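The records we work with from here on pair a chain with its fold. These numbers are not coordinates but entries in a learned vocabulary of local backbone shapes. To see the layout at work, look at the sequence and tokens printed below:
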Amino acid sequence: MNKVKAYAALSAGALLESFEYSQGELQAEDVEIKVHYCGICHSDLSMINNEWGMSAYPLVPGHEVAGEIVALGKKVTHLKVGQKIGLGWYSKSCMVCEFCMDGDHNLCSNNESTIAGRHGGFADRVRCHFSWAIPIPDQLPLEKTGPLFCGGITVFNPIIQNNVQPTDRVGVVGIGGLGHMAIQFLNKWGCNVTAFTSSENKADEARKLGAHNIVNSRDDSALEKIANSLDFLLVTVNVPLNWELYINALKSKGRLHFVGAVLEPIPVGAFPLIMKQRSISGSPLGSPETTRKMLEFCVQHDIVPQTELFPMSKVNDAIEHLKAGKARYRIILQNDF
């Protein structure tokens, strides 16, 4: 049995080290991917540290895979060996529940995560169910595509789900791994985009990405000046902010939407929501079909993440770079096994 070469955390918070494991027989509906590149997401850090209480060790992180198919299960007929493929947070859905049958595989209650209870993409190979093996268009550079399958679809999905209009005035809170892609998507969608950041050195970068306006995310007076001005506010950060002022920045029928995993409860008064018919919502990654639409949109508008490349053998250096807040804006590991 061929061994998979990987990097794994053997305990919570541990440095990653070389690890090998056997995958067993390829199942009839599965796809085996040779990993060429794999992005590092903050969710990988959360899983390494068991922040969500769902990690199992040894843990092989990595859920922003860009590679090629090297083997197919006997029931997989719509894909082919050698095809460029991407894999994100989800690796399998039940395919029979009401959500899967309605095309919302990302909402399946029996979803399998690529790095929860199984081994992920910090490896030379990884497997998934065919439903989550997403073909990568030839026009997209493989070395930059991995982050689209987590960070990219996480911020693209709300645009679709919430019917954001090209005439809308929208805000993006946080200019990092998620936010820098959200700005690009929303600008090309046709929206007037306001970027919220507490880092002055990111203001010029946000404008280059497509932001029309910049607001200091922790300046209450600046937030008060934009009251009742935004149709949609996308929150990509995971830190507490003055949520009352963000809600008040929304127009009537405006929406505050969370994709950043803010760990503290969000205090919300009912009155500002009721009187202006505002709403608060959140969403996970998108379905396979929405992911395909996102990739087509990226091709049409020449959108790719801004990335930094590390060899996979330097994974611990790359993780420290991310922890230090130095990433601009997504880190990619290149398979060098």
